[in-house]
């Protein structure tokens, strides 16, 4: 259906869903994304650093532990999100007391995104020059100092870029969570745009999601550029 056809519909943009539910659904998507992003940053960043330091180029290389941890991270990344969403319903009920609403959706979103972001952090730290690490090590710096002031600091532009990619992915996942009652624009698009054939509601949800993604990507790019002094 084209925009001209939609515009010809007298109900287009006169839909009461626009007045009563579009703003709350948009806010739910934003709340869901912010809450999940904070959790992912808190757990995913140290996990990625830990992975790197246990790896072959890390400060505490341990082949066995690295392989086990790496396998667990890959398992977490390989499960399709819709399957993870359904499989974690009992766990979600234990954590937040319900499997419905944006608060409940934060649980599977976090579980799915933490290993994803951790792998991006590990890849960013691999890009840090081994020469810089060796130079600081020869000056007598501790491994903790090297991790905080060399690895994380030098890898921060890549980490910010990876975090931006993760948040954008979370926004698309949040829409998917809406299909099974996760709230937000995904639920609105499914309940009214798909099940009730309201093309204007579907179009509005898609446009708003695109705008949110564009704003996140723009902000992430600006921050990464500002802190990149290489």
Automatic annotation (TrEMBL):
Q: Which GO terms describe its biological process?
A: D-methionine transmembrane transport
What PROSITE patterns does its record include? ABC_TM1
The topology of this chain with respect to the membrane is: Multi-pass membrane protein
| Location of this chain's protein in the cell | Cell membrane
Q: Does the keyword Chaperone apply?
A: no
Residue ranges constituting the ABC transmembrane type-1 domain according to the UniProt record? 26-220
Keyword Transmembrane applies:
yes
Please tell me one Gene Ontology term that the record gives under cellular component: plasma membrane
Quote the SUPFAM superfamilies the UniProt record gives.
Answer: MetI-like
**Which residue windows are transmembrane per the record?**
30-52, 64-88, 94-118, 158-181, 201-220
Top-rank taxon of the source lineage equals Bacteria
**Keywords for the protein's UniProt record, in alphabetical order:** Cell membrane, Membrane, Transmembrane, Transmembrane helix, Transport
Pfam families found in the cross-reference section: BPD_transp_1
Which family is it part of? Belongs to the binding-protein-dependent transport system permease family. CysTW subfamily.
Cross-referenced PANTHER family:
ABC TRANSPORTER PERMEASE, D-METHIONINE TRANSPORT SYSTEM PERMEASE PROTEIN METI-RELATED
The identity of this protein, by name, is Putative D-methionine transport system permease protein MetI
User: In which organism is this protein found?
Assistant: Dietzia timorensis
Lineage, top ranks: Bacteria, Bacillati, Actinomycetota, Actinomycetes, Mycobacteriales
């Amino acid at each position: 259906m084209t925009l001209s056809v939609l515009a010809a519909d007298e109900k287009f943009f006169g839909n009461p869903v626009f007045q009563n539910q579009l703003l709350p659904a948009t806010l739910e998507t934003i709340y869901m994304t912010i809450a999940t992003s904070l959790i992912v940053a808190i757990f995913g960043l140290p996990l990625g650093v830990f992975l790197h330091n246990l790896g072959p180029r890390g400060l505490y290389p341990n082949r066995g532990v690295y392989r086990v941890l790496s396998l667990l991270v890959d398992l977490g990344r390989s499960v399709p999100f819709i399957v993870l969403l359904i499989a974690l319903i009992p766990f979600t009920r234990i954590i937040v007391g319900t499997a419905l609403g944006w608060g409940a959706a934060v649980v599977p979103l976090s579980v799915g995104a933490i290993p994803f972001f951790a792998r991006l952090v590990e890849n960013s730290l691999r890009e840090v020059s081994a020469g810089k690490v060796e130079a600081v090590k020869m000056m007598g710096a501790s491994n903790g100092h090297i991790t905080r002031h060399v690895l994380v600091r030098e890898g921060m532009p890549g980490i910010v870029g990876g975090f931006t990619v993760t948040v954008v992915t979370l926004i698309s996942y949040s829409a998917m969570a809406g299909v099974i009652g996760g709230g937000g624009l995904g639920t609105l698009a499914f309940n009214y745009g798909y099940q009730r054939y309201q093309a204007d509601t579907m179009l509005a949800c898609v446009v708003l999601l695109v705008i949110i993604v564009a704003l996140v990507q723009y902000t992430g790019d600006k921050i990464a550029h500002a802190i990149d002094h290489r």
